[in-house]
Each structure stands twice: as C-alpha cells, then as structure tokens.
Amino acid sequence: RICPRDGKVGTAYVDCISGNDHVGKAVVMLSYAWKYRLVDIQSGLEQFCEARDLDIKRVYVWLCCLCVNQHRVAEAILKNEEVPFDTFKEVFRNRVEGIGRVLALMAPWEKPEYITRVWCDFELFSTMQLAEQECRLYVTMPLTQQKSLLDWVGAHMLKSDGVDAMWKTLASVDVSQAEASFPGDKQAIMSLINEKSSPHAVNATVSRHLQGWITDTCDTLVRQWARESKQDDIHQAWLLLNVGSLLRKIGRGDMLIRAERALKEAEVLLTRVGDGPDKADPVWPVLLHELGYTYMDLGKKKEAKDALEAAKEKYTAQGKMNEQAAIRLVSDLANFYRKFEYKKELREAVEQLETIDGESHRGLSPKLKAKIKITIGDTKRSDKAYERAMELFSDAYKLLTDDQNIERPMGADLLMSMGIVLQDDPVLNKKKYPDREVEKLFFKAKEIRERSATLESPGGAKLMSAIANMFLDRSEKVVADGSTDEEKREAEVKRKEFLDKAKNAGKQAKNIFEHSHSEETMAAAFLMLTLGKIYEGLKDYQDAYCAYQQSRRTYTYAGHKGRFKALKAMDRVKEKIDMEVISNQSVAVPKDGLLVVTWNIGARFFNPFEFWITYKEGDEAYYELMRKYEKFVKTPGDKDVPLHQIFPDFRVRELIDLMRSARLEGCDYVEKAWKDKYRDTKFVGGFLTCEENASKKLFSLADLYTSSISLKGSAPPQYRPSVTTHYAGNLRTDNSADLLSTDHWWMRWRNFMFHEVLELHGGGKAKTRPYELVMGYSPLRGSPNVTEDERKAWIPLQLLCLALYDCAVLHIMEEIEPDGNWQKIKFEVTKETAKLKQTKTIRILRDNYSAADVICLQKVPMDYLKMLESSFGMDFHLVSPVSPEQAEQERSSTETYSVLLLRKQRFPSQPRGTEALTRRVIDAANKKSGKKQLKPGALLVTKAFHASGLPFIMASFRSDGSGKTSKPVSSAIDELVKDEENSNHCRVRLIFGIDANTVDHTGDEDELDVRSFREHCFKVGLRSCAGHRPEKHSTTCKARTYLQPQYKKSVTYARKLVDDCNPRDHILIRKGTFRVEAFQRDNSGMESYKEAQNIPSLEFPSDHAIVVAGLGLLQDDWEMQELRNNLEAALGDGRLEALVSALNRPRGG
Fold it and tell me: What distance in Å separates the CA atoms of residue 1043 and residue 1053, rounded to the nearest whole number?
C-alpha cells in the first residue's frame, strides 16, 4: 500500500483504517515498554476507559508502533542511518504537547518494567516539563495486576510489614539505572534530565503517580468488590479497614478524609455483625486503632482519644496486650498523650514501653522495636533529655538500617527527630557547625519522603515545618556575628537568605497541612507559630499577626498551653504594625454589654463559576479564564456555529431514544423542535444568550434540579457531569475532572442522567435516576411565555436544552482553553468554596466569634445544624426550627433555615415560645403585605431571659430577593415586642439580625432602597447598629459571571466590583434600649473588612459579610430592673403585678 504521507510503498497501520469507530484525533498518548504483551496493552487501555466511563470507540490513542511508519524505521536501520537525539526530542515534545495527555502503562505493579526503560523515563520527564501547560500524566495497569493488588490489600496490608511491598516498589524507581537499546540515547537523556531537572525529581514524580494509581485502584476495587461479592460483613469490613489503613499511611490530598470514610463504613458493618469471638471481636481493636490514628492526623482530639483508648480496652478484654498489634497501639497512644499533654497517661504508657524495650522481646519485629525506641526517644526529647533521646534514636537507626527499612517514611521520621535533637540540644549548639549535620539529616529525610511519595502527607508537612524552624534558628544566630558595619551588612544579607528559605519551607508545610486536611493538628499550630516568627523577622507584621492568630486558634481549640505563646506574640506584633487594620479586628464591649453577630452564611453554590470570586493574590489564571469566556460569548464571530455541529444529530437521536425508554411524554414534539427550531440555530447567539430561552427557563430549572443531589447516609453529593457543577470525575491523582472532550462528556452525562440509580436522603422517592428530578411545568416555576405544546413536553424539552447547554459550555471551554487548564482552576474553586465551605464557616464562627453573646445566622443548610451543635452546644443554646437530629434525618441540598445561638452564661434558661412567636410574626407580616410571602425557615423568633432577669426578643430573618418582606416583618416584630412589654410591665429588649436585601440606590420598584428601610424602621421605633448612614456599610460585593445559565444577569469583569455592592445586612435594636459601642464588618474571616473585594473568596465562604456590634445596655434600665427584682422579693409572688395594675387603674374608679 502507498503511504499517503510520502507517496512511497509501505505505510503505517493508522493510515490503513477509516471511520469514527476506528480512527480519530488522538486524545491520549500511550507510553509503554516494548516488552509488554499485546494482551496487557489492550487490558490496560480497557481499564483506563472503564474507570472513567469513557466510550472505548471514541478514545483515540496514539501508539508509536501503529502510528509511526515502521517501514521507514526499518529502512533507516538497514542504511545505518541514526536519527539525532535532538530531532527525536523535538518531535516527541511536539506530539506530547499537541495531544496534551500521556497514559503510562505499568506492570507488574510491584516492579514495573516501564521504569527500567530510559525512553519511558524520558517520556515521563517530557510530560513533567510540560506541566505548566497542563500536559497530564495518567497511569494504568492491566486487569491481572488489579487483581494482584486486591489480593495484596486483602492479605497483607495490616501486617507489620504489609505496606513494605509498596515502599519497595517506590524505592526501586531510579532513572539512572534504566536501560536503553542504544547507549547514546541514555547518555543524551540523562544529560537532558540533569540540565533541566534532576534524576531525583524524575524518580519522585514517577513514584507519586505510581502510588496514586495504587491507592486509587485499591479504593475503587474494594468498593466494587464489596458491592458485587457475596462475602459476609466481616470480610467486607476487613477489606475496607485495609484500604483505610493504606490511605491513612499515605495521607496525601483527600486521602485522610477517604480513609476516615472507609473506616467508618467498616465500623457500620461490624456494628451490624455484633460482638463475639467468632464475629467482630478480632477486628474491633484493629479498626479502632486505625480510626484513632486517622482522627489524630485530622486533628480530632476527642475522637482520637476515645477510639485509641477503646482499642486498648478491647485488647485488654481479649487478653492480647502482649501481642505486637497491641504494643503498636500503646506506642501510638503515647504519641497522642505527648502531643496533647496528658502527662499522667503519657508517663504510664512510656513506662510500659520502656519495660518492653528493656526485656528485648525476641518475638518483636525490628520495625516494632525501632518504633518503641523512637516513641520513647521523642518523649525524652520533649523532656529535654537529649542525650538519652539520641541514644534511643541511634539504636532505632541501626535496627531500621539492618532491616532495610530506613528508606521508608518511618526512617524519614527518625531522621527528622535526630535532627531536632541536634538543633535543640544546648550542648551541641555550642559546637561551631552543628547546623550542617542538622541540615543533612533533614534533607535526607526529605529525599526519602519524596521517593516514597509521602512529602505531601501530614508527616511530610511536619518535616517541612522542622526545616523552616531550622532556617529560622540559623537566621537568629547570624545577627550576633557582626561587629563592623560591613560585617553587619553581610550578616543581614545572610540572615535574610535564611529567613527566605524558612518562609518557603514554612509555606510549603502550610499548604500540605491544608491540602491533607490536617490543619487543625498540634503540628500545624506549631508551624503557624514558626511562620509568625519568620514573618516577624522579615518585618511582615500583618502576616505575622495572622499566623500567630491561626496558631492561637488551633491551640485554644485543643486546650494546649501553646495558645499562651501565640497570644504573647500577637500582643508583641500589635505594637509594631499599623493599628488601623488591627483595631478593626476586635469589638470593644462594656462589661455588662452584649456582643452581637449576624451573618447570612449563604447556601451552597452549585456552580463554581457562577459568581466572580476573589482568587489568589497575584494569580491571574482565574480572571483570565473568565475574561476569555466573556469575550467569546459576547463576540463569538465565525466560531458561533449551528448547534448540530457541536451536538450532532445521532446524539440527539440517542437522547430521544433514552427519553422514550423512560416513557417521558412529548418526545415526538421534542424531536420535531430539534429539527425545526434548534438544529441550525447558532449555539451562542441563538441559544445560550437567547432571551426567549432565558425567559422560559428552558435549561436553568433543570440545571438547578440536577446540579447537586444529596444522597442517603454520609455519601458525598452527586453532581451532574458539567463545567458548571462541582463534578470532579473519577481521577484523584491529579485533581482533574477529566472532561477530555464533548464525546467523553456525553458518555458520562448520559450514564448519569439515565442509568445512575441514586438513593436519596430525606422524603420522597427513595431511589431515583437524575432525570426523574426534572419537574413538569408549573405556573409557579415556569413562565407565561411557554406555549401549550412546550408545556405538554416540558420534561423532555428541558432535558434536551440542558444537554445542549452543558455541551455548548464545554465546547467554549475547549475553544478558549484547549490545554484543559480550566479544570485545575475549577477543582480549586470547588474545593475552597464548596467542599470546605462548611468547615470554613464553622471555623470562622468558632475561632473569631465564639466570645459573642448572640449570633444570628441566616440561610443555614440543614446538615450544618449538627456541626453547629457539636461546636457551640456546650456554651450556647442552639435555637432552630428543627432539631439537629431531625435535620440529619431529613437532610436536603436546598432547604435552609434561620438560626440563633445564645450564650448560656448570658441567657441561662432555655429560650421559649419559638414556634408560637415565629408563627405569630409570620401571620402578622403576611396580613400586612396582603399575601403569603414568607418562605418556611426564613424567619426565627424566640424569647429569652438575660441572667439579670431582663426579657429579650431575639430574631433572625432572611428577606426575599427583592426585600419586599423586610418592612412587614420588622413592623410585626416591633408589635410583638410592644405586646410583650404590655404583658411583662417592663421594657423588652430586641436583638434582630436581618438580611433585609436592601440596596443603595433608588428608582427600582422591585428592590428595597436602604434609605426607605431606614425611614420605616425609624417610624416603628427600630434603629440600625450601623447608625444614621447604613448605606455606607456595604455587606455584599458580588456579581454573576457569564459562565452560568442566566445570561441576562451576567456582569462584565470591569463592573464586577460595583454591580452588587450593597448594605443588605443589619442588626436592629429598639430605640432607647442600647448604646452602640462598636460596629464592624468582616469579609475576610479574620475580623477585618476589605473594601472593593468580591465575596465569596477562596478564604471567605459566603457572599455576605459578617456584621458585628458591641451593645451597652442603658444604665437606667439595669437599675429599674434591679428595683423590680427587689420589690418582687419583698412583696412575694404575684403581689408586684397586682400593685402595678392598681397604680395604672383610671382615677376615680
């Protein structure tokens, strides 16, 4: 056959085939060793597609053996023609960059042939070099290797050396030992690697991806096996326990969260089995041990202590305290007691370990012996017994070296501990160059962490924290070295160099703690204390203050004495920085006054791109993406092609067939509408931005129903595969959604909408498919512009338009960001604003406002109530329309409530009359407005009594979007207070936190101007704590982007800071009851307000700022109440009321 490329006889296989089912534009390049069998290549590709729900007919793979013309290669060999390495390098780089995805095939998993070939390592290295352009690296293995992995997990993981197989695999990765068919190739490749990077960096990258594949595959296979197998609950629990242990030991990214989830699932299974020697008894202590260790890495002090001590009780009851597993538990308990300063318990645990160490148990493995010595050594180090600690560490080092385990994470921890001893020992510090040995130990530990792909774990974060502390220590020693001016200048330069190194290491440690969800640990608190000192040394006092503040919060939450060091440091820094910012970080409250907070915490954002957010300072990637999308939608030009070019006819037919199979009415009309109306319409101007589509809500409602679906139990929500949902795909190793193309998207979208069976949380149908959540036409939800035919076919019409919308948006993203970088941005925004939203919200309240007396919250999702109760229940009354237990049972992704938190010290008795008072205000407000406008849960009213006996009405309210309910509700609240005053014969105080949805402009009848609302409040006797000019205190600064369904509401990049900058939130009180001592807003989560900043941000999780007021009760009111109390005590029960009634009776009666 003639080659179409050069016209000569002999062609490549790819040039001999045709048709979409056989050939197409490559979406991934396969990188593999030529020794692999064809069956393994086929199996590896099948596993890659199956794991991602990809259509195997549409995943076009570039293979060199099939895509390169091998006839020409053979001819060149016969002629002894050698292609220069630089030519190969350039061709290969262009190919990788053009395709954008490299798939590495590795087998066997315990020692891949792939990593022994230098050309394979070069392909990996080239992919690394293109990382900034987002060339992604994936790893796959044949099915036989997956089964081998599953056998390993089930049989070996929890044994003392169970994870060693993986550590050995990762340690065997060494590019310098790789082979090549031509020696010159290896020499050229190694020279390139040394020039651009290093062999160690290549080794670390390969190890990281290989480890990610191992853990993800184990997790996926075990869950799949548990669903499909007929094994009993104990076997399934054991497998989940093994997977949880593996994920915990690696601890990178979300692995700790996944470990906790797997272990909790195992706990449920064991609870179902019941206790007994033949049942769950042997598994319980092992599970509780793993749970406790996982909780410790997550910074969950109470849960960790309970689980670890429960495990010890189980071992004791079973008479197994002399077994190796129980001894490991005692060692981990000692570490826990040391970190959290349980001195008595620590002493007992260490004594037990010292006894074991002294007896030299012959049955103990070298690793366990070393672990015991390291634990005792760390305790001695904490007690400043450095010489004894170093002896124990040296013994442990010999044990691990002899057992060939020093190149493991445990060896890295040991080297770190040895380095800390050398640094902290005042005797060693007197030597001239002790830091060289310290640095050598720390960086050897870092190399081990990188080779084992555990640098990004909590253990790796501790190591980077220690390195930061080392450089800080060296910077402090430098200052005293200078005597002359020149020496002092040199010393200052050197000191700055050390501080910069310390800052870089510290910031890396901070990022690792945050990404591994271990930022609440004692190690993280110590790091922030170290970072504070570093920033202070660099004279970045604002950053120093924030670091000290974060350290103080974590220490305080754990009850650790480190909080006093942090507080002292905060006071020291306050004197050095601009007090203008810091003065806004605390509200002064009189001794007998009240600190009041109101915050609309904002329901979840189901679209990560819906609103302009404040992205990372100095990083323009997010803003550039949004500007490119905005430009494309506004001026698409000749790229505005007909819909059928991005969503072909055959795909429409497939969708209609699916809808017909689902027995949806109106499919014939939808098929006709496609042909007559949509098919040839321009996808931007005629569909995405079409005002008719927007007014009819043809895809915005269906988007709302299916963007986020809450599932039963603790399972995370399910998201529709789309650019504009929090869908993140199946990949975990590189945090990408893997929406490779519209072909791949369609496979996932179709399977999700029509084949996925979801078990929903709450009422209604227990099990459903997502398409069933799309509702039929309703005048309340729909539009009068919808025709009668469209109403009859409303569900299938919405599904078609939703598919077109999702496809159109993805097509634009492919056009503006062909390298797929948008997925990385989306993942980060999703993580910070959605996945961590609840955690950040609770943390801001707990760390900054736990000293408040009254906290009014609006738009609180149901599943937040349990977390609020656990975080504040000890010190606050939680007042909500439903109990946390009921909310947990009836959890919904859209239901939100207004909630109150009242400090028990200020309001000792339980608030009363909540349901009746709330109903009373709702009825009065609806009567005033002439219609039923209030949504259930938007308003909460209760009555509480201050410790002095003063009665209070407390209210929290979120108005409707236009603010129309704000006036009737505030009037009804004021009338309620007056009625209560008449009943109590004394003044009743009001504290009313309200999102009134007021705006700072006039002329729009559909919105409530803040001045109009202020005048209304003055009329009824209410006052805002913001003073006479509330319009000057904006609490929102938000704007919709173009990357969301409601095009008419889109705001340009240029106007994103001015579109909705309004004073929507208020704290209202009654005239003459309080003095407003202080008032502030917070849109940073750090008790400060930054003007001209869009919220939410990556740090602040709501689109409303927090409003805080310090209130002082007027003194005469306190004195009148005290007089009343004295009179009641003197006259007896009921007599004061009778006296007041008699005095108020008309004269002459």
Answer: 12
Whole-angstrom distance, CA of residue 165 vs CA of residue 854? 56
Count of other CB atoms within 10 angstroms of residue 1017: 25
Report helix, strand or coil for 608. Answer: coil
CA angle 1005, 1008, 1009 (to 5 degrees): 100
Cβ 603 vs Cβ 896: under 8 Å: yes
Residue 1139 is predicted with a pLDDT of 61
Separation between Cα atoms, residue 491 and residue 477, nearest integer Å: 10
Cα 1031 from Cα 317, distance rounded (Å)? 67
Give the Cα separation of 595 and 1107 in Å (integer): 11
Helix axes of 434-451 and 199-228: crossing angle, nearest 10 degrees: 40
With H, G, I as helix, E, B as strand and everything else as coil, classify residue 372: helix
- Report the predicted TM-score, pTM, of the whole model to 2 decimal places: 0.61
812 in a domain, yes or no? yes
Structural domain harbouring 797 = 621-731+739-822
Higher-pLDDT residue of 436, 459: 459
Span between the terminal Cα atoms of the chain, in Å: 122
Does residue 65 fall inside a structural domain? no
**What is d(CA 105, CA 139) in angstroms, rounded to the nearest whole number?**
6
Tokens of 106: 């590795």
Q: Is residue 1104 part of a domain?
A: no
Q: Cβ neighbours of residue 304 under 8 Å, at least 6 residues apart?
A: 292, 293, 295, 296, 336
Q: b vs e for 327-339, b when ≥16 Cβ sit within 10 Å of the residue's Cβ?
A: bbbbbbbbbbbbb
Look at residue 1033 and tell me whether its pLDDT is greater than 60. yes
Torsion of CA 335, 338, 341, 343, to 10 degrees: 110
Give how many domains the chain has, as a whole number.
Answer: 3
Determine the Cα–Cα distance for residues 439 and 419; give it in Å rounded to an integer. 7
pLDDT above 50 for 580: no
Q: How far is CA 138 from CA 289, 642, 733, in A?
A: 34, 34, 8
Last residue of a domain, one of 185, 207, 229: 207
Contacts with 169 (C-beta within 8 Å, 6 or more apart), sequence order: 109, 110, 111, 112, 210, 214
- Give whole-number Cα distances, 1087 to 535, 599, 655, 850, 1081, in Å: 20, 13, 51, 12, 8
| 864 vs 602: CA distance, rounded Å | 12
Within 8 A by CB and 6+ apart from 511, the residues are none
Rounded Cα distance between 488 and 845, Å, is: 46
DSSP string, 657-689: HHHHHTT-TTHHHHHHHIIIIITTSBTIIIIIT
Token readout for 1039 is 């704007």
Contact 855, 900 (CB under 8 A): yes
What is the β-pairing status of strands 1060-1062 and 1036-1038? antiparallel
**For residue 683, what are the contacts with CB-CB under 8 A and spacing of at least 6?**
640, 641, 642, 643, 645, 646, 804, 808, 811
Domain closes at, from 822, 837, 862: 822
Angle of helix 522-537 relative to helix 541-558, nearest 10 degrees, comes to: 160
Distance CA 1108, CA 348 (A): 47
Contact 115, 173 (CB under 8 A): yes
1048 DSSP 8-state letter:
G
Instruction: Evaluate whether residue 403 is within a structural domain.
Output: no
Q: What is the pLDDT of residues 687-706, one digit of tens each?
A: 999 988 888 888 988 998 89
